[in-house]
Each structure stands twice: as structure tokens, then as C-alpha cells.
Amino acid sequence: MFVYGCIDKTNTRFLYCCFPSVFLGVLDTVISVVLHPSLSARLAAAWCLRCVVVSLPSLAAPLLDRCTERLIALKSSPEAVSGYSLAAAGLLGSIRLCPLGVPQGKGKVIMSLAEDLLCSANQNSRLSMQRVQAGWILISSLMTLGPAMVQPHLRRLLLLWRSVFPQNPKDLDMERSRGDSFTWQVTLEGRAGAMSAIQSFMSHCGDLVTEEVLQQLLPPLPFAVALLAHLCAIMKELVADLSSPDYPPSGALFLLPSLCHPVDLILLGPSLQESDHRAIEEQFLLSNGIPGGSLEYDPHAIYHMPSEGESVPTPMPPVYTVIQAAASLFGVLLSNMPELQRTQILEQLVESIKQTKGSRQQSVQLAALSALCYFLKHLASNHIDLGPEETRRPCLTLIVGALESRNPWLRCAAVECIARLAHVVSETLYTSSLAQASFDKLKVARDVVARTGHSLALGSLHRYLGGIGSTQHLASCVAVLHSLSQDTTSPEVQTWALHSLSIIIDSSGPLYYVHVEPTLSLLLTALLSTPLSHADVHRSLGRCLSALLNTLGPELQGSGELVACQRNHCLLACSVMQENPDCLVQAQGISCLQQLHMFAPKHVNLSSLVPTLCVHLCSPHLILRRAVLACLRQLAQREAAEVSEHAMTMAKDGHEDLKMDVNMRELGLEGVLLSLLDRENDPQLRQDVKETLFHMQSCTGVSRLSFWLRLHKDILSASADFAAVASVDTTQEEDSEQCCSDSVLTSKKEESSTPSVSPRWHTRVFSMECVSMLVSQCVREGGAHFNVVEAQEMKHKEPDRDFLVLHLQDLVRMSFMAATDHSEQLRLVGLQALLLVIQRFSSVPEPEFPGHLVLEQYQANVLAAVRPAFNSDTHPDVTATACQVCSAWLASGVLKDPSDLYRVQQLLLSSLSKVQMMKETSSVYSESTTTMETLAVLKAWAEVYIAAVERREPEGESGCNPGDGLLSMVQADISTLSQLWLSALQDHALLTLPPECSHQLPSPGGAFYTSETSDAARPHYLTSWAPILHATSLWLSSTGFILADPDEAGSRLSRPVTPTTMGQEHNNREPAKTPEDVNSERFHLILGNILELAIELISVLHRLLLMRESSEIQLLALEVGKQILDAVQEHVQERRRSAEVDDGAEEKEKLPEFGEGHDTGGLVAGHSLVLAALEMCLCILIRQLPQLSPRLSGSIIGRHATKQPLSHDSNLLISASLSILAELPSLCSPEGSVSILPTLLYLVLGVLQHTAGRNPGGRLSLAVTSALQALKAIVSSPMSRVEKSRASWTSLLRSSTSSMLQSWDSDEEKDRIAMLTALTIFLLSANPEVMSEPGLQNASLQRFYSSTDSKDPDEQLKCYRLILSIFQHPAHDVVAPYICELAPRVVRHLSHADSRKPQSQAELLVLQEGVRLLQALIIASEEQNRPPVVSMVFHLLISFLLDENTLCSASSCSRALHDFGLQSLTQFGASHPDQFRHLMGSSTALRSRLEAALRGNQESLKPKPRIVRGGGQGSPSIQLKTNFL
After folding, report:
1. I need a labelling partner for 441 at 20 to 30 A (CA). Which of 283, 523, 618, 1096 fits?
2. Could you report the per-residue pLDDT of 1117-1140, keeping only the tens digit for each?
């Protein structure tokens, strides 16, 4: 047992690494105890071996082999069979705690050995029992390894289970009639072991429990059903077991934790409380007859996980386990029996209690109450009715008899049962009668027993029923309990009454507000008047105060007089509790202050609270330390800096009660908390310490950078190998100031008179994690933390500030110390920290040496830190992390010397060689671990290759490039790496297949995984495939996607690589193509010819859009999707062109048959690329515009989205989606295009409708312009003109136009120009039949009329431009009706220009655009109809002119209109001279106005006389041009 006490993680790792010979001697000693005659010794040795494996996972497989070999060799020794089987079971049970696992072959060995033991059990009667036990315990422990290990042996397991039990009633009868006691003992032992194995199988291999497996496991159950026919007999046996317990009354303690409410256990004394000396206290309890657990009571517990708070499983003695199992089974069976039989059984229990006397009666009562409680629990959980009054009566009799028992355990159990009884009955009248009975009893009873039991019953009823149902009952309960709480003659009554009052306060909630003031006064008075010797009363008072604080909650922040008084009373009560000598009361006082700080932080004085907490940090009482750390954790979340300052002030003032082993003056509160991690073993307390430190560092880490780094450096350097560090440091060139730093690594610590103990490994791991967190904090802050020059300048200006880059030396050294430690966990976090340092500081320049980086001086440190990780005995996860560090180091650009690159490359080369030999060598770890290490190596090489390619300079540039040396190193092994990369990608592709395609996976597995470990290997592939794919694509691009054929000369190249030819031999010889040709064809080759691949890729992109919220990722996914569709579209067009060439011109009408939909137009989901693309785009559009969905349009989401403007990213996503939708008709056959056209039009017009709002400045958003472009592409699709689909397209387009016009009328806030543009697109781009319908023509013209008559000149201008496009359309028969109707409206509007001159630039542009529109009308008109229009234009232009009198005073807009009219007249007159001369000769007024305008224009062009000042005469030396016409 002494050896077991020494086996923990720290000691094991230290002995194994520093003193291997001593460790092997200790291990041999432990293994020798396996053969000890005592079962307890064998179990202790087995558990020791389990602890060794948890500490050193690499020993799992060797120790397991050793146990199995010795078990086979010593099968004739009962002790050896028992001991080595227990040791093997313990080892198997520990493997689930070792992430590296063991090889699959170990499961086969264990299964074969177990089968051999079970089959040979009958050969030797002296070994039968041991072999049966050993066989089943090995099988049961094998189940803990999970489904992957058990799956190959499932069929054999089912046969073993089937052979243990009788298969039919005849076998059962024959079995009963023969066999002696020994045979029955062996048989029953075998069945017990088989049932344990089944239980372990169901617990750990749930994925294997299929319907077929269940059908084979069920044969034993019919016999159990046959036994259930004698249910009454079974119940009689259970009642007999419950009424004749074979244990002393004090042994009933084991039933209480599962029977009573956890809060009520505190009333039963300190025996059930947590403490640091729990093991010693349990030994004392055992000496007093109170049961304790031990492994020897159930050897199968050797492979179980310990319960929370336990280091070893502690199964109870069989006598107690039988009672507990009987009580549990009683509750299940009784709840399924008829109500009449329930009453009889319960009455039988009552009679069994009456027939016993004295202490035995108490044991029977507790067992009966336990059974009754299980019964009531089962009824409540399954919503089963208890039954009539006849069934309730015996239940109440059982409870009332124990409610007034002198045994407090019975009273607590009875209180729990009465509350559950009321809960099951769930009748207000019945619950009120129970409460009234307790009221009546409390009024007349004067004995302590009755008053305690019934007072607690009131609180328990409130707990389960949420209050009795009325404020009257609440007031009555509070009044009674207040009265009992003031009974100073009986501290026990006070204790129970106050505890019940705390339950009522908690369960009443806001209903208790009216009772807060009297209760608070009662508590304060009791705290001040109750003697300190009555600790139980003070504890109950503390619980009441805590419940009151929860009830008041945030109300304590108020500023009213009443709230202030209540707050002061609470603070006073907390102060009184802190002065109590009892540790539980002090802990409650601290917890209450913690609650006050939560609800009213401004009113808690930290200057007095923090010193109190610091004093209790080293308290010998676990409960008090828990309360202190919980409070500190909360304080650190809000006021971390203040807490640290108050603690340091107290340490400097020399507080007399502060007695610690750690110097708080130097290390502060943070150092004290770190030291607690070495002393504390309680998991919850340690977690609170870590969270407190995390909060304090996150708040003060950047401002106190030097302090935190020095603190962690001291922790990490306490056990550092100074010789190793010194040898590394001598290779560095550092400044004298850095060499004289206070780092403990530069020299050994001075000899101390007091012995020092190195921090434990988990403390150092935590400290290294904190260092990484500090780096991450500085990364978030950025700035001078990663700039040496800026940091030095700011440090000079502000000496109090600190920057991370100035501590780079300490960061590297701490990472080095952790990475070279003997603890594997510490090595992992050290390498991860070193990786973080490389990533963050690799680009930081060294200011003293231009052209160099600051990390160059630490090359030796990095190499020395990673080199041990590549040793043969290193754990694979450490090697994998070291590979990641090496790849980052090579890719960082810090290494420039070829020799330095070579040294790091050799480390990766050693791992690469190991990868190539992995399948040929055996491993002590699982196959998934081997996969993880292999992929880590390949990923590291891939990242190095990616960095080398990216750093290579473009061809043609001269100079030395450091990336060339790195690339040449990788190129030396690229042939091997490329094959391994392709194999890894093929494995990943196989593992990502959906479950329905699992039958396509190769049975032996892939290149780097086995079929049994495929599930465990998937996460490793998931984290590695991306860089491997990137590197592979770069390599294939560098070769032009051409693989050299090994069977031919170098001048001959094989055909381009495709997914179906990668890694395969090429027998077809084709001429070589240039890389440019291959690059232009490969996307078409892969996606055009393999439609299924394109569909699958679109589906993958769709899933990616559903899972990722980043707009950048979504845009990239849509871009990739568009490229896929472009490739397929190119393929379809190529087929159509080929068909045109082959079939001739006479068959052209059949050419568009190519595409999805074929002749029927049907598109099948899952097999249609168009539908897959449509779903992908729909996903984006519905997310950005929920109102597009009929389900969401009327919801809160849809209404909210309507009011919100689209962001820039949303516009980009919508635009990308619409561009994809516009291409879909070209991928379909004519019939297929008709199938998708309604959806496309709905989406495009829906986007237009919901995004075409009135924007400032009249600009159209990107979503609107994209919708208009997509609409034009769709309506002008060639499919709309194919004879087969022309009619359908026309009908659908006409319907869409009508729907758009209707939606336009229903929403006046939409941009009318956007809708007019859509109408123009339908008119000019669609088939002529679409807009030829008279109703659509009239509705469209009305929209144009509305815009031409608009008072908004911007709208008029854009409308004129749309009309201009209509007038200029070459198909005059299509636009003729619109020209005839719109031209007069335009002329009418322009005719008012003479009377209403333009007042703004926009109005001027409208008039100018109107003139251009009329000029276009002239061109569109027939020759005989042009003269009137020409005359009208001349009149209009002359009306724009100004005479010499008004020209000088005219506004800028009128002057601009005049200039435009004059210039247009000049050009128009030149193009129509005859009409111009005829008009001037026939109209004197027009001629006079034109002449006046010309004279005014000449006058304005004359130079003004220059006023020469100073008497100077003469002309200027430089003549400026003033006439620009």
C-alpha cells in the first residue's frame, strides 16, 4: 500500500525520466504483488499499474503484453490467473484516459485469452472459479475501449453470452435438477460475469447496440419474464430483504445521500461533509460500523472510473448493495403492480416494522423508507397515479412513524418521503392537510424530536410544491418557524427551524418580500445573542441569510432608506459571522459577502474583505478555502487590479494573522495563488484558483507585463536543466544588459538554508499556458508590442510602460525550458508557446542590424527545443507539435543560412523516413495516433513547400532569393512527398463520404488509417487536408498538371492529371501539351465531362454557405460556383457547336436539345446541376431578403428586414447570386428552361421589388442594377426564341410583367425609374409578342406618363433616356405604339420651355435630353413624316435663344440653354438646310429672334476695355483667347 501511495503522476514521470533504473525496480515490485495470496493486495497492485499507465501512456502496451504473457504462462496458478487478469483489466480501464490509446491487435489478444480461459474453466476444478472470473473481467474491461475495439469481436461475444444462459425452459428445468453446490457457484459466477460484461457493453458501446444485436441479447429475458409471473413472490422476497437488514443502525448512512435532499444532509453532522482528511475520516467511520467502499467488494470496479472526488472506486459491501438494489427494485416493481396489491405490500412493510424492536427497528424503518422513496420517485418521474386513500394511508403511516423518531437520519428520510408523497398526490387539499397536521403538532408538542421533524417537513413541502398555494399558508409557516427559531432552550430545534425557514425563503421567491424585514431582524438578533458554542445554530442562520440575499437580489442596489437599512443589516450579519470561530460559519459569511458583491458591488468594502480572504487562504479547513477562492474568483472578474493592490498593501503592512509559506510581499497575491496549485488536491478549489489567475492576468497582464513574466519564469525555472540552458545561451550574441537580467536561467540559484520543492508538473503547465495567454493579449493590443524601435522609444518616454518585444529573450527561454521538460504535457504547451512566438515575432526586424530579424539570434534555442521531440521514444503528439514548429520556423524567413536550413530539414526528414516505415514497424500506440503523427509530418512539409513557392521571386529577376534554397531542399524529396500527399487526400475523400456510401470504403482501410479506427482518424484529416491540398495543387501547377511517365523517356509526358487518374498507371500514350493548354482545359475537363462531380461540388458549397456566416467566405463560395457553371456551360455550348457541324444547317432547330431537362423538362433533385445552383443562390437571397420567402414575408424577421437597408456585403452577395441565376437557362434544354423560368423571374423581380427603394441622389443600388442585368440576360435568352418553348416563354414573361405592374401600384415608395427600366427591358429584349398585348401596353404607357409628368427633374431625365432607347430600337413594329403615344407627351412638355426657363442644372438636362429624343424621333420616322417634326425642332431650339438685352442678365442655366440651342441650330441647320431656309423665310418673328440672339452672342464675345492703373499705356504682352466657339 505504501507503493500505491507513492504512485502519482509527478513522482512517476520524475522517476521514469531521471532515474529509470529505480523506476523499473519499483515497477517490478508492484508487478510481483500481483501474485500475492491476498485479493486486496492484488487489487492494490492492479490499481497501481493503472495509475502508472495514466501517467506514462507509452507503458500501456508493454505492460499489457507483459500481463497477458505471464497469464498464459501461469494459467495453472490461481493467484496468477486472478492477479494478472485484474492487472490487465485495470490497464484496459485506464486506456480511455490516455488519448494515444493502444493498437487494435491488443484487443484481439485479450479476446482470445478470455475465450481460452472460459473454455478451459471446466478442465481443472481447482482453477474453475478463477478462470471464469478472469475471462469475464477481461471481456468486461475490453468494452471500455469503445465500439472500434469491440466491433471485430461482436459475433464471438454474442456466442459467449448465448452459451452462458439456458436457451429454453427444458434446459432450465434440467439445470435445476442436477449439479452440486460448487457447480452452481461456478455457474452463477459465470452468469454474474456475463451480465457485468453486458452492462459494460451497453455503457461503452452504445453505437453497436443495433436491432439485430438486441435480438440476440434478449434470449435470457424470457426467463426473467417467466419469473415475473410470480411477481408477488418476488415482492415478498424483497420485503423480507428490506425487513431483515444484516447491518447495524449506524451502517444506514450509505442510504442517506441517495435518499435525502443534499441540502438537508448538513443537519446530520460533519460526517457527510467534505474535508482534506476524508480518507482518515472514512477509516474512523468504518471502525464505528459505518460502511466504506473497497475494491475487494467488487473486483469489476477495477476498470470503472472513480466517482467525483474519489481517487479509487469504492464499491460498497455486498450486504449494503443488496439493500440498496432491493429498495430500487421495490420501487420499480411496486409502481407496475395493481393498486390493490400495492396496498397489501405497503401494509406488509408497516407490519414488519411493528414486529421489530430497538435498534433493529430503526434499521428496518430506514430500509423501508428508502424503498418507499424509490417508489414515490418512480411514480413522479413516470407520471403514475399513487391510487386511492387506501394506498396513501400505509405510506403516511410509514412516514409518520419515522417523523418523530429519535434518530435524526430517520427524521430526514421521513421528511423527504412526506414531501414526495405530496408531490405524487398533487392535490391542494391533501397537501394542506399534511401542512395543517404539522401545524397542529407543533402547537402542542414540546419535545425536541417532534418539533424538529415537523418544522423541517414544512420547509420540504414548500421545496417540492413551490409553496403551499396561498400567502396565508406562507405567513403561517413563517410565523411558526420564527417562533421555533427563538426557542433558546433547545439549540437543535433552532437549527432545524432555521434550516426549514431557509428552504421556504428559497422556494417562495418574490412572495417572501413582505417577510424580509422581520426575518432579517430575527437573524441579526440571533447572531448576536446565540452563544458561539452553538455552531449548528449559527450555520443555519448563515443559510437563512444567504437565502434572503438571493431573494432581495438586485434590489440591494437601491438608494431608498429601507433598502439601505436592509443592506447595512446584511453587512453587519456578515461581519458577525466572520468573527465566529467555526469554519463553516466563516465560510458562509464569506459566501454572503460574495452575494452582496454580486448584487451591490459598490457597498462592499474590498479593503477589509480582501485581507480577510488572504488570511484564510492557508486555512486548514477545506470548506473555508473553497469559499475564499470562490469569492476571489468573482472579485477578480470585476476588480482584479484593486484586489491585487489591497493584498499587496496588507502584505507590506505586515498583517499579524498572515502566516504563509510564500512571501506575498515579493510575489503578491498572484504568487500565493500559484503556490496553492502545488498544495491543493480538491478539483473544484484548483479550478477556482486557475480561473482567478486567468481573470487577474487578463485584466492586468499588459499593464504588469514584467511582473507576470517574472512570476511564470520562476515557476518554470524551478526544475530547469541549467546545464542545458547555459549551453544554449552561450551560442547567443546578446547585449550586456540582457545578460545581466534577473532571469534565473542565466545562473544557478544561490544555496538556501531551507529546502525548496519544485512546482508540480500541472502547475508548470498552467504557468506556460498563462504565458501563451499573455502573448495573445499583446497580439490583440498590437502596436509597440511587436516593434522594437517603437517599444524602446515609448519605454524611454514612459518608463512605467512595458512591451512584450523587450521580453523576447525570456519568452524564448521559457518556451525552451517547457519544451525540454520530462513532462509530456509541459513539452506540448512549451512547443505550442514556441510556435506562437515564431508566428508573432518572425517578421519583427532587428533595428541594430538592418536587413535582419530579431529572432535570428535565437536559432540555437529553437533548434535545441525541438530536437528532443524527434527522438524515437517521444510521444507522437509531441512529435506532431514539433513538426508544426519546424514548419513554421522554416517558413518564417528567419533562417537564411543554408546550414541552418539543413539542420531543421534533417529533423523533418527523420520524421518523413519514419512515416514511410510506419506500416512495417509496430507501435505501442493506437493506429489513429499513428495517423495523427503521419498527417502532422505531411502537413508540416506541405506548409514548408507552400512558403517556399510563395517566397520565390518571379522568373527573370536577378539576385539571391532565400526562398530558392528552401525550395530546392523540398524539391529533393518532392517525388516522395507528392505521392504521400495524394494518398492522404484520397484517404480524406473516402472518409468524407456520407454514411450511406460507407460500403464503398476499402475494407482494410486507407493509406494511413485502418477501417477500425476510421472514426478516430477523421478529425486528424480534417485539420490537415487543407494545407496538403494547397501544396499538392502548387506542385501540380508547377508541372503543368502533367505527371512524368516512369516507363518512358523524359521527353515523353503522360496525359493531364484528373481525379480518376491520379496515382494510377497510364497506358495510353498521347502527345504532350504545353502547360498553358492544359491549364485552360483542366477545369472544363474535370467539371464539364463529370457532371456528378460538379453537382457534388455545388452541394458542398451550399452546405458551406449554410454553416459559415462570413460574407467573405460566402462570396468566395459563390465565385467558385460561378466558375463551375461556366465550365459546364462551355461544355454544353461545345456539344451544341459539335452537333451543328455534324448535323448540318437543316437540323439547327434541334440543336438546343442539349442541356438539362431534355425533352420532358423534368429536373430531378440530387441529379440536376441547375437545381443545385438554384438552391445555393436561394440560400443567399433568402438570408439577405427574408421577405422573398412566403413563410417569412409576414413574420417579424421579414418585417424587420424590410425596414433595414442592405449593407455593402449584402449587395455583393445578392449581385453574385443573381449573376449565377442569369446563366441557368443556358444550361437547360428548351423544355428545361421553361421549368425553371417561373422561379428565376420570381427571384429576380422579387429582388428588384424589395431593393428598389428611393435612394438619396437617385442612384440605384448594386442589388437593383444586378437584378436589371440578370433580367435582361434571362428575357433575352436564346431559349425564349426556340420554337418549342417560345409560346411558354412568352406567356410566362407576360405574366411576370403583369405581376410587376401590380406590385408597383401597391407600393408608392419604390423607385419608379427602376421599374420603368424593367419594363423597357421586357419591351426591347423579350419576344415582340410579350408586350404586344393591349392591356400591358396601356398599363406600361401609364407608367411612362406618370414619370414624364413628374415634378422631379431627375426622374424626368431618366425617363427621357429610357424613351430614347425605345425610339432608337431597330424593330419599329415593336416600339411603334409606344412612339405614337409618348412622342406627343414629350413635345407638349418641351413646348413650355419658352414660358418656364430652367431654374436648375437638372431641368436644363431634361430639356437637352428632350431635344435629343426628338432628333431620334426624326430618324425613326419615315421620310414623308419628317418635315413637321423638323419644323417643330427648329421652333423649339429658337425658343431657347435669348436676345442681346436679356443675355447679359440671364441666369447660368438660361445662358447654358441659349448656348445649347444655338449650337444645336447650327448643327441641325447644316443637316436640314432646305427646311431651315424655308422656315426662316416664312416666319419673320423666328428670323428676328435668331438674329437678335446672334447679335447678343457677338456682343458677349467682344473684349471689355481694360482700365490701366498707374498711368501706364499700351496693350498687354500676352493676348488671352476669349472666344472658344
Report:
1. 523
2. 999 888 888 888 887 777 777 766
